[in-house]
Amino acid sequence: MPHSSVADVYPDQPDAYEWIVGEPAFDPARYLQLEAPDRLWTLEEFGYDEAFVASQASPIAMFSPSRMLSDEGVAALHETISLLKPLVRQAPDSHRISGYLRGTVFLSKFIRDLCRCDEITEFMSGLFGTALAPHTMVYQQGHMNFAPDDISKPVDHWHHDFVGFDYVLMAHDPATVEGGEFKVFMGTREEGNAILERGEELPVERVIAPQFPGAGYTCFMQGNAVFHCAAPLKKPADRVSLVNAYVSLDIDKPDPTRTFFVEASGRYAWLKDEVEPHHSWAEYARHTAWLGREKLTHLLDDLPLDAGREQSLAALRQAASDLERAIKTIDAGPLPYEEMEALRRRQDDDLLKS
Question: Can you give the pLDDT at residue 62?
Answer without folding.
Answer: 98
